Amino acid sequence: MSHTHPDLSLRTRRALSTAALGLLTATIAVAPASAVPACDGRAATAEDYAAELVCASHELDGPQVITLTGSFAVGGESANVYDGVQPLTVQGAVAGITITGPTVAEQPSGAEGALGTFLTVYGEGSSPLRDVGAPPVTPDEGGPDVTVTDVTIEGFQAVGAINNFSTRLIELSDVSLVDSGAGDFDGSAAVSSAGELTISRSHLEGNAGFFGGAVNMRTGVYSQGAMQDPVVSDAASVTIVDSVFTANAAMVGGAILVFGDTRISGSTFTDNTAETGGAIASYGTSTTLANSLMTGNTAALSPVFGGAFEELAGGAIAVDGSLTVTGSRLTGNSSEDVGGAIAFSESFLERDASFALEASELDDNAASGAGGAVWFQGGVSVSGSTVADNSSGDGAGAIVVTGSGNDVTVANSTVVGNSSDVASPALAVMDAGALAVTHATFVDNTSTGGATDLSVIHTGTTTLTATVWGSGASVPSCDLEETIATTAANFDVDGSCTDDWTGEGDLGPGLDPQLGALADNGGATLTVAPAASSPLVDAVADGASDLAVDQRGVTRPQGEAKDIGAVEVTVEDPEPGVEPGPVEFQIPTGAGAVTATASPAIAVTDVSWIATADLDPAPPADTMLPYGALAFTVEVPQAGDTVTITLTAPRPFTTVLKSGDDAWSKVEGATFSNNGTTVTYTLTDGGDLDEDGRANGFIVDPVALAIQGTFTG
Predict the structure, then answer these.
(1) Together in a domain, 585 and 554
(2) Mean pLDDT of 432-439
(3) Which of 21, 111, 301, 687 is the most buried (most CB within 10 A)?
């Protein structure tokens, strides 16, 4: 089975000229608008709906709206066609409106195959259903938009639910489209459109087709009574936002087949299947997947199509052109040949192919052939991403880049736990332009031989910088062409990636990188972080690397120099310094609050009051303690510092006593205000009046404000 130059088989080409392009030749007469009884924009039955579409098609003034007021089933002879010149919206009046298609047995065959669909759209005035007496119209670049919203559409299995033969924009919003289309050689997808298509907040499940199970972007337009020749270079684009595609199936593109640009964001693709492109087959110039999830999709030999496309590739995505995946996760996808998650799939368009993986995760994907996660021909860039636990049966466990002559870069990324059943590493680069790996972490990858982390064959200059090559054990980490390898500041567990650590700043012999497990260390993806004591920390010489952040977006460097690998060990900023000064505090007592100041101090804590009855020892004879005892701890700027304490009570007192060694003593040197309500004295950290007796930056000072008759101590 060919991986690089698949040819379309005869039956595939035949299907492309019929099912994919939707050629129609029949001319069917429909009653003119004058014979329609309602034309009020509301439909509760299949007959009402068909009639309202005829009304809207003949209307020349203003946007048209058809409101579906009840659920109904469409019969096999229905002709739900719109070819007017005004924008059209078909909407459900309330939640739960469901329109059901006819059974396959009821569906006409051959040229009348457009009958029985939920909606068929032609270019203005071009429909074979338009009657001779209709007012003339002027086509206008495909004309106004058609919107379908707030409705469930199900069971249109013979020729699909929505067929757009014009270049109009079709917009589906808040639509559930299920169990439609036909998964055979003459089958149509649930939605087929020659014009731009936008799908938002919608759910497409269990649909089937030949090209595209849920969506087939046509390459031909029905105009002036005939299908135009396809112009693939100008094919319409598809935009998908916040939508779900589940269990759709086709020969190519289990959920979607598109020849124009593809833009997908915030969406989920689950359990879709096809021979090529389990979820998406995109042959447009540009494909973007952002903030989305793709899981359980499969590229496998179909019992229906039996290898008609002659390629099994891309468990989730098959692409020819540029592909950008950002902020997304592709997990648990599989291919019976190449590219467990993503594969290049050469088309007759011969696009310039490139692949960029940004801030994303490819994990637990599997390929029977090469590329457990990715198999690609073209330029490849991996940045800020994690490729983990993917597996292959016949090639690199994670990523294969082959035969393109374009550059390959890996930066700030983690490649961990990938495995191959043959002698092939996690990353294999063959016949590329140049390879640069910077600040990556390769660890715990396995192979039966050759290399575990990286192999490079017939490729231009290879530059390995500030990267952890940590998988080598019985099998070397790298297999490089020695004449093209340039290394600096790498950690190389066995020397196979750095020619025995000869590059500037390369290290590793006898050292433990002290790496943790794959975990959430912050940022958009899981990462492998080194311990603070790791030899990777601060090991990149100044100027060796120009990356200003790590995989998580953390600034480099955190310490004296940048760290080797994808993760920069975070250095906590010290607490901002607190300027010492007067600290005011208050001590509530049974006789009122005592206000206080400590200066210069950082803080005063552990403030409390002890009632006289609870004191041990008891106060001296002839001594009254109206405020009990006051306790507090003063934090001073430096160990051994002296502070001044000022205490002010509600009423006068005559002395200040200190408790210690089971006795009370007078605080010497205390001064009193003239009215006897304020006392000032000094405390020294570790001095006689410091309860803990240690110069440790904290003074513990329980005191009592006393009224004393005579006191000798």
Answers:
(1) no
(2) 95
(3) 21
**Residue 598 domain flag:** yes
- List Cβ<8 Å contacts ≥24 apart for 709-712: 709/622, 709/623, 710/622, 711/620, 711/622, 711/623, 711/655, 711/666
User: pTM for this structure?
Assistant: 0.76
Is 326 domain-assigned? no
The parent domain of residue 384 ranges over 353-573
Same domain, 394 and 517: yes
CATH number of the domain at 70, please. 2.160.20
Mean pLDDT of 289-306: 88
Reported residue count of the chain is 713
pLDDT of 16 higher than 50: no
Tokens of residue 608, six digits: 């409390």
By CB neighbour count within 10 A (0-12 exposed, 13-18 middle, 19+ buried), where does 559 fall? Answer: middle
Residue 51 to residue 39: CA distance in whole angstroms? 7
CB contact set of 661 (below 8 Å; sequence gap of 6+): none
Q: How many domains does the chain have?
A: 3
Instruction: Give the 3-state secondary structure of residue 253.
Output: coil
Q: How confident is the model at residue 9 (pLDDT cuts 50, 70, 90)?
A: very low
Asked if 159 and 102 touch (Cβ cutoff 8 Å), the reply is no
Phi-psi region of 544 (alpha: psi -120 to 50; beta: other; left: phi over 0): alpha
